Amino acid sequence: MANITVLIRNKKHIAFMVALASCLTFACNSPSSEYKIRGQITAKHLSELSQNKHKIKRISIRSSGGSSFIAAQIGKIIHDYKIDVTIIDYCLSACFDIIAVAAPKLYAKNKPMIGVHGNPHVLFMLSVENRLQNCDIQSYSLTRQVYDDLDLSVRFSVRQMELLKFENYTIKGQCEAVSYDLEHELWFPTRIEIKEYLGKSIEGEL
Question: What is the model's pTM?
Answer without folding.
Answer: 0.71
